[in-house]
Amino acid sequence: MISNLRRLGQFGLELIEVLGRAGTIWWMAIVRRPKASNIPLVIKQIYQLGVLSVLIIVLSGFSIGAVLALQGYNQLVKYGSESALGLGVALVLVMEIGPVVSGLLFAGRAGSAVTAEIGLMKATEQLSSMEMIGVDPLHRIVAPRLWAGFITMPILALMFSVVGIWGSSLIGVDWLGVYEGAFWSAMQAGVEFDSHVLKGIIKSIAFGLVVTWIAVFQGYDAEPTSQGIAAATTRTVVYSSVSVLVLDFFLTLLMFDF
Amino acid sequence: MAKVMVAFTPMKETSEIKPHISISEVVFRRGQRRIFDRISLDIPVGKIVALMGPSGTGKTTLLRLIGGQVSPESGKVLVEDHSIPDLSRNELFEVRKSMGMLFQSGALFTDLSVFENVAFPIRIHTDLPEDMIRDLVLLKLESVGLRGASKMFPSELSGGMNRRVALARAIALDPRLIMYDEPFAGLDPIAMGVIVQLIKKLNTVYGMTSIIVSHDIKEAASIADYIYIISDGVVIGAGTPDNLFEQQSPRVRQFIQGMPDGPVPFHFPALDYAEELLGVNK
User: Which of A14, A129, A139, A145 to mutate to test the interface with B (most CBs of B within 10 A)?
Assistant: First the structure.
């Protein structure tokens, strides 16, 4: 009984220690002395994390938009409201599916890549040699990736939503025969920037922060062995994905009126 | 732990000159394990000193203590009269300009070319114009024999070449101290001969104080001026390569001669052999 309590306490202390280390990385990388000379590094990371994720985002966005149109049409046509298909798909994508699914995809593709990269740099002593030369790896390696993460995440989420809407229009209008005028005009009338699109953007910025932070921390904290890196990469994907979904619930609760 | 009487060969010729590095009574712990238990040693200026000892005794940790990557629990680490653990971040940055370190795996930055790797410390620590940086980098690469590889990337180089480029990077700012972490590990005879010759050349031509951490008795003894053998967190033997081989201490002799059993036992602690076998059969 006592040993179980002790183990629980030890787990709690370790958890706090991990959160503390993660918070320290966040603080030292972003807040302390961001340098203008790091901008080329940030741009390079925007390419690595953002541009190279565009293909997966576009493909997934198109597929989900198409599926939403298919399933939405089936249900709406029962009530004769199929002209609201465009509005429904656009709202769902912009407010929920866009930020969340692109967050999950980003965690899987970019998050795991960042963790593996930083973990490998740690294992091959590149971070150590950088320190010995006098360069803080938190500034040179970690900070550019953090900045790139939460710059690209909202852009990718928007791209996802846009491609999704286009995909749904292809299915809904061109194939299933929803009246084009109603499809687009209902969407234009019903989707507002302030109450719908902006909230989706805020969500995706939050997801970008969380996913990149977890990815960077897991890489920096990984055991410098091949097993350690594999475990760290898995943790990144799992923790990021769960965090995105749970955070989505709380953000939705906070931002929208219920 | 029983105190071991060790015969040290004093470094007579440098006893009047202040040592480049002075480590005194350093205690360092990692988790529960005491890695260094009041260890003391001096590194004289301009000499090649080899640090040897069984695996896992923390020889690399000693290099990290000197470089300021970790701090000791107690004791002094002095490099050219600077107390490393007490330096501020900016002061440590300046001191690191005069230190070079060659890591075991080379540790080149894989996303940069050979040229950019060697130019990296120059760009960080100086404001030199591009053409001057180019000249310096080519000079350093020429001294390790790899000027022709300047446009290649680390992934295209062999292990030995990787290490030579890392050496060029470590000497990019003409440091007064250079530390080698297992420079001979995993190299073929030719590559090993190249590295040995380069280490010797850097020391005699540039007068760089050199610290070599190595297991390789033969190679280290062939170029070192002085050897420290470290085990269980303290120095158990020290001397020039010649008189080290004549030392009587059993721990030193086991290490030098590579005897599988001795003060460092062959058998990991276990139950009585006969009892364990019979117990299983029951």
Answer: A129
- What CATH class has B12-98+175-281? alpha beta
Segment A116-144, tens digit of pLDDT: 999 999 988 899 888 888 888 888 888 88
Model confidence at B281, pLDDT cuts 50, 70, 90, reads low
> Each residue of B9-23: pLDDT tens digit?
444 444 557 788 888
DSSP B185-246: TT--HHHHHHHHHHHHHHHHHH--EEEEE-S-HHHHHHH-SEEEEEETTEEEEEE-HHHHTT
Profile chain A (258 residues) by mean pLDDT over runs of 10 residues: 87 88 78 69 90 94 94 90 89 94 94 93 89 84 87 94 94 87 90 89 93 92 90 94 95 84
Contact A132 B99 (CB under 8 A): yes
pLDDT for A31 equals 65
Determine contact: B69 vs chain A, CB below 8 A.
yes
pTM to 2 decimal places: 0.83
Q: What angle do CA A12, A15, A20 make, to 5 degrees?
A: 125
Which of A126, A132, A135 is nearest residue B101 as measured by Cβ atoms?
A132
Residues 211-270 of B with CB under 8 A from A: none
Which pLDDT value is given to residue B111? 87
Beta bridge partners of B102: B180
Record: contact B69-A129, CB cut-off 8 A: no
Residue with the two structure tokens 């302030």: A194
Contacts of B121 in chain A (CB under 8 A): 133-134
Q: Are A117 and A219 in contact (CB under 8 A)?
A: yes
Q: What is the mean pLDDT of residues B55-84?
A: 85
Q: Per the structure block, which two tokens stand in for B49? A: 């000193």
Tell me if B107 and A125 make a contact (CB, 8 A cut-off).
Answer: yes
Check CB contact under 8 Å for B107 and A126: yes
Token code pair at residue B127: 């404001």
Contact flag A130-B69 (C-beta cutoff 8 Å):
no
Among the listed residues A120, A114, A128, the one whose alpha carbon sits nearest the alpha carbon of residue A225 = A120
Q: Return d(Cα B64, Cα B256) in angstroms, integer.
A: 25
* Count of pairs with CB atoms under 8 A, one residue in A, one in B: 42
Q: How far apart are CA B163 and CA B199, in angstroms?
A: 12
**What part of A 126-145 touches B (C-beta under 8 Å)?**
126, 128-135
What residue ranges do the domains of chain B occupy? 12-98+175-281
CB of B121 less than 8 A from some CB of A: yes
Phi, psi of A223 (to 5 degrees): -65, 135
Specify the pLDDT at position A201: 93
